[in-house]
Structures are given as structure tokens and as C-alpha cells.
């Protein structure tokens, strides 16, 4: 039985709408296609379908309707092909955009062999000596003072007055931080003239010469040689404590700058621990071993002198200050382990353009430059907080704390070594967590821990005579304090000083930071004995207040700097200083990293 033309048309429309092929890639039915299908006969004015059965032309009209349905299928197929083509073109365009975008995704730096060895050699040859010479005179001090007295007897035929002996020994100890201050004043002239690596090589003179002097002092029967040598080795420490962080900060990729920047402090703590181990009575801390122990400070310097010339100078120094792009490119390729370093070189060129009007800044210019105001205040506060927080006083007080807890006199040296080991292990922890946690969190938590430890230590020292378990609380407070200082206040100021300043101002900034560091160190060593006599255990309340004040300042003023370029960090401080950074005549447009589709931060090349 033949179907009417209207039924054929309606069935064709239903097939068109419900066909699986009419469902697009997003699962939505193509309802808009039904608008193109044939209208019903009633819509064109035919109301009596049954009357059409007697009409001869009804079969031909039905065939015409079928042809119309077929034509609409053809239209749908054509439209679907157009839609498919559009989707393919869109996906192809997206792939092209993705490929272009991937070209602008910055490679994450990795720890190459060249970078790792340059870090280890410079830190061992320079930073290690700083820590070693901090602690090298502590354990053998009775034997060295005995040598002073015996030398005086040989010269003048009578024992040295106790006050004179105390004065000479105080000079021997305090000349070290004073030499460090003088070394800090030499940073900017040397690093600008002969480079970062060149300064480290030159600095070895201030280690090898005093090592020979101290080693030969007993044979020469001259305690004056030890005092002069302590000044010279202090100059070595003053230079190395500033130049090594600067050098490594400029060698490192931005995603590893924090971790590598802590390595110098790690080697300082290793130097302290090494001196404590050598100072054990059964090793070198005795009447015959102390000259050799003092002379060992020259060994790392000799190693650095022979090996460091095989490693690159700072590429930023070569490009921005020397204008030698060829050498900068070659050294950067060695450090990164790949050939394509154009993006990093371009960032250096932009920094050079932004600094062209400034020129090389001296310390006086630094204090008068509006765009560096808060950076300068910040490094002064952090370095003062680092030294005035009581870290040296804790070490000074540690022996008496251990003795009060019942540790035997001969065993205190081993407990001291254990404290030094804690310092090393916590600094290693800081190396591994600084890039994940950031600089700001480590500074805040470190100063917070030190503040709490000082308060508890004051309570424990006050009541240790009346409460049996208080001496053990004192030992716990010392360990907690050392741990807190090791993860933040000790290493992070060096890292942040490198990051807060650009190439033209960085040397002068390290001069200021180093001078504040060593003067504060000298001040604590000079003042704390009097403070202890006057306030006793309550002197640690003062240190707790300094820790708290530094913490508040960091919370208020210092931003997070991890994984940012030097120009991006400068832009953050420019907003605080109410200034702008210009490249030529244009403002710098610093773009923040935005979350990617994967939820992780995508590192994009900063557009300027």
C-alpha cells in the first residue's frame, strides 16, 4: 500500500533529525538542520489529503517529495563535510598555536656537570674557609694562649700579665671579623675590575699567605704572626662571603638559584664542623697539633687556585659589563648543557638596556637611588637580624649549658660536634626545600623559631638551678635555635641580596650587606660578654626581640622571589619604591606566570 506524500515527507524529516550521523562531535543533535527539511502539505495549503488519491498526479507528486527528501540528505552531507572541515582546520590551527606556544615555553634549567663542579669548587675553596676559621681557634685556645705566654717568657724572662694575655687573645679572635669588614669593602672594586671568578682566584692570596704564617708561628716564636694572619684570613672570608653567592647566583638558572645560592652557607657550616672535629683533643686540638690545624686553611685555596680557571666566568658579567657576547654565549651553553640560550641572552640584553642610563653604581649612588631604596633597607635589616639574633652568643653559651646539664668536661667537645652536625643537616634540608617553599617562608619560619627558642632558653636558664629537668630543656632550645637559624636566617640573606639587585648595583649592594654583616658580627663578639655579665640569662630576651622585629619587617616588606628573573624582581620593588623600570623609552611589562590547563604553573618567556 502506497504511503501518502505527506507521510513520506514526515518520515524523511524524522530520519534526518534522528539519524546518528546528525549528532555532532559534542553530542548535540543538529536541530537546526530540520529547518531545511520539506514543509508539510498542510503548510502549503493542501488540507484534504484523501481527495488527492483520485488525482493522477499524486504518484508523481510523491516521487517529487521523495526527491526533495533525498536532496535534503545531500544538503546535510555537504553541511556535515563543511563542519568536519572546519573542525579539522580549527584543530590544525590549535596545534600550530600550541607548537608556537611551546617555542616560548622556557626550558627549566638543570644541574649540569659544569654548573655542579663550579659550585662545589668555588664553595669549597672560598666559603669553606670562612666557616673553618670561625671555629678553628676555639678548641685549641688553651694551648695557643700557653704559646703566647711561653713566647713572652722567652723574650722578657717573666710570665705575661693576665690582662695582657686576655687582650692579645681577644685581638686574635676579634681581628677575624674586622678583617671580614675590610674584605667586604674590597668587593665592588674587584668584581667590577677582574670579574667574579677572577676575584675568587685573587682572594686565595689572603688564605695561602696567612696559612703559612700561622703554621710557622711556633717555629718563629711569634704570636704577632697569628694576629696579623687572622686579619688577612678575615679579608679572605669577607670577600668570599659576598663574591661566592654573587658568582653562583649569576651562573644559576632562575629555577635553581635558591638551592645553589644556599650551597655557600652549607660549606660554611661544613667548615665549622670540620674545625670542631679537628679540634678534638685526640686529633689536632692539642699542644703539638694546633699549628698544623691553623695551617690547613690554605689547602682549599690551593685546590681552588688550580681548578677554578677551567670553569666559566659569570655570563652576565661578560655580556653586560664586558660586552663580550660571544664568550657569554659559549659559557652559558656550557652551564646549561644545550645550544639554544638566546632567550636568556635576550633577558640579559634587556637588563643591560634598562641599566644603560644608570651606569655602574657606587655605594654612595646606591643610597641616593630612589628605585633601590627598599632593597637597600631590606638587605641591611636581614644582615643585621642574621648576626644580632644571637647565633654567636648561642655558640658562646653552649659549653656552659652542656656543663650545667651534667655533660662531663671532656665530653663537651663531642656534644659541640653534634651541634655542628645538626647545623649542617638543617642547611642541607634548606637546599632541598627552598625552591618549593620559597625564600620568604624560610626566613619567616627561621626567625620565628629562633625567637621562640630564645624565650624558652631564657626561662630554662633562669630556673635550671631549681628545676631538675630545666638543663635538658636548655640543650633542646640550643638545638632548636641552631636548626631554625640554619634553614632561614643563615643562608637566605645571601640568596635574596643577589636577587634584589641588577648587574650595575649588585657589587655595591654586596659591599653594604657584607659590611653590615661583619660589623654586626664584630659588635656581638665585643658586647656580648658585657651583656652576659650585666643581664645574665635575660640577655637572650634582647635577641628574641631582634628576631621578632626582623620577622615583622620581612612579613611586611620582602616579597617572594623564587623562579623570577632579576628584572621581574626589580619590577616588584619598583612598585614599592614608586618608580618605573624602562627599557629605552618603554615601560617594562612584566607578566606573571599563569596557571596552565594541567594546574601547574607554565613558565613563559617574559614579554617586554
Automatic annotation (TrEMBL):
Output the Gene Ontology terms for molecular function.
Answer: D-glucose transmembrane transporter activity; fructose transmembrane transporter activity
Q: Where is this region: Disordered?
A: 1-34
What membrane topology was assigned to this protein in its record?
Multi-pass membrane protein
Q: Which reaction does it catalyse?
A: D-fructose(out) = D-fructose(in)
Span of the secretion signal?
Answer: none
Question: Record's SUPFAM superfamilies?
Answer: MFS general substrate transporter (SSF103473)
Print the keywords alphabetically.
Cell membrane, Membrane, Sugar transport, Transmembrane, Transmembrane helix, Transport
Provide the coiled-coil residue spans. Answer: none
Give the GO cellular component terms, alphabetically.
sarcolemma
At the top level, the lineage of the source is Eukaryota
Residues of the Major facilitator superfamily (MFS) profile domain: 119-562
- Indicate where this protein is primarily found: membrane
GO terms for biological process? D-glucose import; dehydroascorbic acid transport; fructose import across plasma membrane
Location relative to the cell: Cell membrane, Sarcolemma; Cell membrane
The record, for InterPro entries, names: GLUT, MFS_dom, MFS_sugar_transport-like, MFS_trans_sf, Sugar/inositol_transpt, Sugar_transporter_CS
Transmembrane ranges, per UniProt, are 111-132, 167-188, 200-220, 226-248, 260-284, 290-311, 376-397, 412-434, 441-463, 469-487, 508-531, 537-558
A Pfam family this chain is assigned to: Sugar_tr
Q: Record's family?
A: Belongs to the major facilitator superfamily. Sugar transporter (TC 2.A.1.1) family. Glucose transporter subfamily.
Name of the protein in question: Solute carrier family 2, facilitated glucose transporter member 5
Amino acid at each position: 500500500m502506497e504511503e501518502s506524500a505527506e507521510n513520506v515527507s514526515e518520515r524523511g524529516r524524522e530520519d534526518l533529525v534522528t539519524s546518528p550521523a546528525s549528532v555532532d562531535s559534542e553530542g548535540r543533535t543538529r536541530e537546526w538542520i530540520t529547518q531545511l527539511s520539506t514543509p508539510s502539505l498542510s503548510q502549503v495549503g493542501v488540507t484534504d489529503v484523501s481527495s488527492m488519491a483520485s488525482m493522477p498526479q499524486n504518484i508523481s507528486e510523491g516521487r517529487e517529495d521523495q526527491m526533495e527528501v533525498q536532496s535534503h540528505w545531500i544538503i546535510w552531507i555537504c553541511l556535515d563535510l563543511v563542519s568536519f572541515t572546519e573542525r579539522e582546520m580549527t584543530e590544525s590551527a590549535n596545534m600550530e598555536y600550541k607548537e608556537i606556544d611551546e617555542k616560548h615555553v622556557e626550558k627549566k634549567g638543570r644541574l649540569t656537570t659544569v654548573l655542579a663542579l663550579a659550585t662545589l669548587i668555588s664553595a669549597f675553596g672560598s666559603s669553606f674557609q670562612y666557616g673553618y676559621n670561625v671555629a678553628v681557634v676555639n678548641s685549641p685556645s688553651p694551648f695557643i694562649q700557653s704559646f703566647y705566654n711561653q713566647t713572652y717568657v722567652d723574650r722578657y724572662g717573666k710570665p705575661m700579665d693576665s690582662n695582657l694575655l686576655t687582650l692579645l687573645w681577644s685581638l686574635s679572635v676579634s681581628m677575624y671579623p674586622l678583617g671580614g669588614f675590610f674584605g667586604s669593602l674590597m668587593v665592588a672594586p674587584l668584581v667590577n675590575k677582574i670579574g667574579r671568578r677572577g676575584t675568587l682566584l685573587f682572594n686565595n692570596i689572603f688564605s695561602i699567605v696567612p696559612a703559612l704564617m700561622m703554621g710557622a708561628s711556633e717555629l718563629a716564636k711569634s704570636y704577632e704572626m697569628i694576629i696579623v694572619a687572622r686579619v688577612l684570613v678575615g679579608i679572605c672570608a669577607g670577600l668570599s662571603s659576598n663574591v661566592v653567592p654573587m658568582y653562583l647566583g649569576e651562573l644559576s638558572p632562575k629555577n635553581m638559584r635558591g638551592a645553589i645560592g644556599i650551597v655557600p652557607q652549607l660549606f660554611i657550616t661544613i667548615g665549622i664542623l670540620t674545625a670542631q672535629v679537628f679540634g678534638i683533643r685526640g686529633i689536632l686540638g692539642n699542644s703539638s697539633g694546633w699549628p698544623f690545624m691553623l695551617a690547613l686553611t690554605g689547602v682549599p685555596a690551593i685546590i681552588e687556585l688550580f681548578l677554578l680557571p677551567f670553569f666559566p666566568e659569570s655570563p652576565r658579567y661578560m655580556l653586560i659589563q664586558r660586552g663580550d657576547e660571544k664568550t657569554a654565549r659559549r659559557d652559558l651553553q656550557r652551564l646549561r648543557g644545550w645550544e639554544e640560550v638566546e632567550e636568556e641572552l635576550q633577558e640579559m640584553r634587556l637588563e643591560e638596556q634598562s641599566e644603560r642610563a644608570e651606569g655602574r653604581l657606587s655605594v654612595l649612588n646606591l643610597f641616593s637611588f630612589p628605585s633601590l631604596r627598599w632593597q637597600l633597607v631590606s638587605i641591611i635589616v636581614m644582615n643585621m637580624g642574621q648576626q644580632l639574633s644571637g647565633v654567636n652568643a648561642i655558640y658562646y653559651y653552649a659549653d656552659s649549658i652542656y656543663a650545667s646539664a651534667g655533660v662531663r668536661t671532656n665530653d663537651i667537645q663531642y656534644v659541640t660536634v653534634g651541634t655542628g652536625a645538626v647545623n649542617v643537616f638543617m642547611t642541607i634540608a634548606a637546599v632541598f626545600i627552598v625552591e618549593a617553599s620559597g625564600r620568604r617562608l624560610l626566613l619567616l619560619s627561621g626567625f620565628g623559631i629562633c625567637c621562640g627558642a630564645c624565650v624558652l632558653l631564657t626561662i630554662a636558664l633562669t630556673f635550671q638551678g631549681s628545676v631538675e629537668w630545666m638543663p635538658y630543656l636548655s640543650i633542646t632550645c640550643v638545638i632548636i635555635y641552631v636548626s631554625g637559624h640554619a634553614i632561614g636566617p643563615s643562608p637566605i640573606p645571601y640568596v635574596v641580596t643577589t636577587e634584589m639587585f641588577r648587574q650595575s648595583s649588585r657589587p655595591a649592594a654586596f659591599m653594604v650587606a657584607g659590611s653590615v654583616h661583619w660589623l654586626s658580627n664584630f659588635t656581638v663578639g665585643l658586647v656580648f660578654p658585657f651583656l652576659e655579665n650585666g643581664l645574665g640569662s635575660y640577655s637572650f630576651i634582647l635577641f628574641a626581640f631582634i628576631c621578632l622585629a626582623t620577622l615583622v619587617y620581612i612579613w611586611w616588606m620582602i616579597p617572594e622571589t623564587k623562579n623570577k628573573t632579576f628584572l621581574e624582581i626589580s619590577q616588584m620593588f619598583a612598585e614599592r619604591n614608586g618608580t618605573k623600570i624602562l627599557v629605552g623609552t618603554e615601560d617594562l611589562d612584566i607578566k606573571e606566570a599563569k596557571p596552565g590547563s594541567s594546574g601547574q604553573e607554565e613558565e613563559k618567556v617574559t614579554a617586554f
